[in-house]
Amino acid sequence: MARSKNSDAQQPPSIGDKVTIGNSDSVYTIITISPNGSTVGLQLEDTNLERFRVPVSDLKFVDRRAAQPARPPAPVRKRLPVEEIRERLATTQTSALDHLAGEIAILKKYLKTKDAPEQALGQLDDLVESEEKRWQLTIAAIESLLVEDEE
Fold it and tell me: Are 27 and 62 within 8 A, CB to CB?
């Protein structure tokens, strides 16, 4: 695979290219490239021997790999399972509110046996109502985000 020296000089080095240095017959593999592309890191094949910051101008290219794209392609965005999310939200809301209402009912019965003021019982009822409203607002906000994501 004979290439002219001019075409090698014009093409920047790539990781994985096979090169020699000077008059040496040892074949190295490029393992790193400096940010400005002027120096490379080399590894002698089948060894742990490495050379660091070798100027590109000192290299003779033996075998070049196909140019790699600078960035990997953007990942494909997965579609959200919107209906499953809606079902799960509804189930969780119902479960949470039922549990809260049950615990509050038990607490109210206990407080009645201890002759607690009616205002305290009313505060507990207000708590359950406010939680229901918060759930509705939260689900509405999540629904709007899901609708935006579907588009």
Answer: yes
Instruction: Return the bridge partners of 113, or none.
Output: none
CA dihedral (56, 60, 61, 67) in degrees, to 10, reads 20
DSSP 15: T
Distance CA 42, CA 32 (A): 7
Instruction: Give the pair of three-digit tokens for residue 81.
Output: 């399972």
Find which of 13-17, 22-26, 58-62, 86-90 is predicted with most confidence, using mean pLDDT.
Answer: 86-90
Residues 52, 56, 59, 62, CA torsion sign: positive
> Which DSSP symbol is given to 71?
S
| DSSP assignment letter at 3 | -
Output the six-digit token pair for 20. Answer: 């020699």
What is the arithmetic mean of pLDDT over 80-91? 91
Asked whether the whole model's pTM tops 0.85, one would answer: no
Backbone angles phi, psi at 20, to 5 degrees: -120, 165
Per-residue confidence (pLDDT) for residue 22, from 0 to 100: 85
Separation of alpha carbons 113 and 89, rounded Å: 36
Q: What is the pLDDT of residue 70?
A: 64
Rounded Cα–Cα distance for residues 9 and 64 (Å): 12
Tokens of 64: 């070049």
